């Protein structure tokens, strides 16, 4: 190879190396806009990444307490609780409920009825639902209640009409309520014929009465039954 060509090629590679090095240096020194400054002592929550796969440290999340406080301060919550309060006050006035009653609420949802009962002064309230809502409602299958026979004075089936197996749903509430205690179930507002069908689901209780009312903003019929036979 001729000398001047060799020299030219050498210069060319030297220039290329210099450009590449400078580019790398520039990339290294400059933080692109899309990256977050890792030395920022107060990173925004969404910019805070785990340092390694073992970094389980504080990640901001909504605690139960926070979520509950938010839920419990809504107007809908207060309104729904108050609709249950009316239902229970009616039972209290008729001596079916007192502060010392042991009460079970099935299909308790996030716990409106449990809250209403607790606010009224009822000391022993158990709320269950397929999904737990700590601290008001525990997790249990309404069709297979994890309670002994006859341990409650009042059993409430807040949403019998949403049950997949209404017969089983009713039998389990009835089973856990003592003789002389009462069961209350509510369904979408319905007429006499449908009430009779629901009453037939009970195997050892006597029909007391049915009443149309507004619960959680919906027109519903609540049916009151008294347990007569011991299981
Ligand atoms: C039930 O408890 C509430 C709250 O503690 C109280 O205000 C109310 O007077 C009690 N009712 C009866 C009948 O003792
Ligand atoms: C409840 O309302 C329905 C109409 O939606 C009516 O047929 C029924 O008789 C009412 N029941 C009671 C107990 O008032």
Automatic annotation (TrEMBL):
Gene3D superfamilies: Vaccinia Virus protein VP39 (3.40.50.150). It comes from the Eukaryota. The chain crosses the membrane at residues 12-29. The keyword Transmembrane applies. Keywords: Membrane, Transmembrane, Transmembrane helix. SUPFAM superfamilies: S-adenosyl-L-methionine-dependent methyltransferases. The keyword Transmembrane applies. This is Methyltransferase type 11 domain-containing protein.
